[in-house]
Design goal:
- With 391 residues, the protein is an alpha+beta fold.
- It has helices spanning 18-35, 46-49, 55-72, 79-82, 204-212, 219-226, 234-237, 241-246, 362-365, 374-384, and strands spanning 5-7, 10-12, 85-87, 93-95, 105-112, 117-123, 129-133, 150-159, 168-175, 187-195, 200-201, 250-251, 257-261, 265-276, 279-287, 293-297, 305-315, 324-334, 340-352, 355-358.
C-alpha cells in the first residue's frame, strides 16, 4: 500500500478519497434512475456517467451496459464462461448458509476477463445461482473506472463476525496498478459480506476502514476489527504521543532518540508498533517538544507485520545539508505458497522544506539483503547521490 502521511489529525494517502467516492456513487444511482430508467439499479463508474452515445465516452457507456447486462443474465454456473467470466477454481468452497436452508451450497468466485471485475456467486447442487454480487470493494480499487486492477483472490474465509448466528464471508483480493507512482506493487483489498435473510449485504463504512487503516492483512485481522473491535485507526488519527500510548501503541525500546531537523526543529523520533491479530503494525512518528505528532511514516508499506527493526539513522544522505531518515527493518508477509516469508527493506525519507519525501529512486537500484548493515547502506546511498564524505 502506498505511503500515508499524517499532519495533526489529517491522514493523507491513496485512499483518503474513498468516502467522497461512496457519496458520489449514491448520487449516480439517483441520477441513473432518472436518466436511464430500467437500465441499472446500481451506480455506474463516474467516467460512464459523463458520456453520451458518441465518441470515446459513448463507447464506455456501451461497454458498461454490456458488462452490466452480462452479469444480470447469469442464472446458472454454466453461464459464466459464455458471459466472459473465468471461475477461480482454487477459491471455490462448499458452504452451508443458515438463511438459505440446510442444503450445502457452493461459493464460486469468478473474474470478468475484459474488465478484471470480480463476481461472487452462490449456487445449489444443480448449478442454479441463488445469489450473486459484484458490489465489492475490490471493484472500486480504481474509483470511477470500469477497468479494475484485481489480479487474484488472496483469501476467502467464513465466520459469524457480527454475532447474529449467521455465517458471513470475509474476502481479501490482491490488486496491482498498471500505471502511476505505485505501478506493479501488489496491495490487498479486504471486504466483508454479512449474511441476511437469503441474501448478503455490505457496510461500506466497515470496508473503508478495513482498507484505509491497513487492517486487510488477513481474515483474522479483519475479524479482529469487525467482530472484536480491535482497531488500528488511532495510529492514523492520533494527534499526540500521549494519545498513541493510551490506545496501546508500544514504542520500540532503544530506538527512540531526539534530533535537530533543520527545517522542522527539534523532534523526537518515536518508532513503535500496535498488535492486531497476529500482526505488528509498524509506524514511526516525529514528535515536537509539546508532545504533538508533526509527521508520521509507514516504512512497512504493504507487508503484513514487522519482524525485526535493525535501526533508524538520522543524517544527511543526499547531500542537501538536511538530515534525512534511513530505516532498515525486516518484515514478514505471506509467500506465494502460503508460508511465512521474511524480507529486508531499506526505506529512505528525505527532509524537504515542508516535511519528508519518500525515496523512489535508490530503491529501484538496490535490493536489501539480510546481511546489510546500516553503515553499509548509508555508504551506498551516499555513493548513489555522488558523494561519500559525511558533511
Amino acid at each position: 500500500m502506498p505511503e500515508k502521511w499524517q499532519s495533526g489529525s489529517e491522514t493523507l494517502g491513496w485512499d483518503t478519497h474513498m468516502n467522497t467516492q461512496k457519496e458520489n456513487k449514491r448520487f449516480q444511482k439517483m441520477l441513473l434512475s432518472l436518466v436511464l430508467p430500467g437500465l441499472l439499479t446500481l451506480a455506474m463508474p463516474l467516467g460512464v456517467q459523463a458520456g453520451g452515445d458518441k465518441g470515446e465516452d459513448g463507447q464506455l457507456l456501451r461497454d458498461y451496459q454490456k458488462y452490466e447486462a452480462s452479469f444480470q443474465a447469469i442464472e446458472k454456473l454454466e453461464d459464466l464462461e459464455e458471459k466472459g467470466y473465468k471461475i477461480l477454481e482454487e477459491q471455490v468452497f462448499p458452504i452451508v448458509l443458515e438463511s438459505f436452508g440446510e442444503e450445502e451450497l457452493t461459493l464460486v468466485p469468478a473474474m470478468e476477463k475484459t474488465w478484471r471485475r470480480l463476481g461472487l456467486f452462490v449456487a445449489n447442487a444443480s448449478g442454479q445461482i441463488l445469489y450473486k454480487c459484484k458490489e465489492l470493494e475490490t471493484n472500486n480499487s480504481r474509483p470511477g473506472e470500469l477497468l479494475q486492477c484485481t489480479r487474484e483472490i488472496a483469501a476467502v474465509s467464513f465466520a459469524d463476525v457480527n454475532r447474529d448466528g449467521l455465517t458471513d464471508i470475509i474476502l481479501i483480493t490482491k490488486c496491482v496498478n498498471d500505471t502511476g507512482d505505485y505501478a506493479g506493487i501488489p496491495y490487498k483489498v479486504g471486504d466483508v459480506l454479512f449474511q441476511g435473510e437469503g441474501t448478503f449485504y455490505r457496510d461500506w463504512r466497515i470496508s473503508d476502514k478495513i482498507n484505509r487503516f491497513s487492517m486487510n492483512k488477513s481474515a483474522n485481522c479483519i475479524i479482529s476489527f469487525v467482530r472484536d473491535g480491535e482497531s488500528a485507526e488511532y495510529l492514523y488519527t492520533a494527534s499526540t504521543l500521549e494519545e498513541l500510548l493510551k490506545n496501546g501503541f508500544v514504542m520500540e525500546p532503544g530506538q527512540c532518540y531526539t534530533r535537530e531537523f533543520e527545517k522542522l526543529g527539534r523532534l523526537q523520533v518515536v518508532p513503535g508498533t500496535m498488535r492486531i491479530s497476529e500482526y505488528n503494525i509498524f509506524l514511526i512518528y516525529l514528535i515536537n517538544e509539546q508532545g504533538e505528532i508533526v509527521w508520521s511514516l509507514q516504512p512497512m508499506g504493504d507487508y503484513d507485520s514487522l519482524y525485526s527493526l535493525r535501526g533508524i539513522n538520522g543524517r544527511d544522505v543526499d547531500g542537501d545539508g538536511l538530515k534525512d531518515l534511513v530505516v532498515l527493518a525486516r518484515y514478514s508477509t505471506e509467500g506465494a505458497t502460503g508460508g511465512l516469508q521474511v524480507e529486508t527493506r531499506c526505506s529512505i525519507y528525505y527532509q524537504r522544506t515542508n516535511g519528508f519525501e519518500v525515496d523512489t529512486e535508490f530503491e529501484k537500484t538496490y535490493r536489501c539483503t539480510e546481511e546489510d548493515t546500516m553503515e553499509e547502506l548509508i555508504r551506498k546511498i551516499r555513493e548513489y547521490w555522488g558523494w561519500q564524505i559525511e558533511q
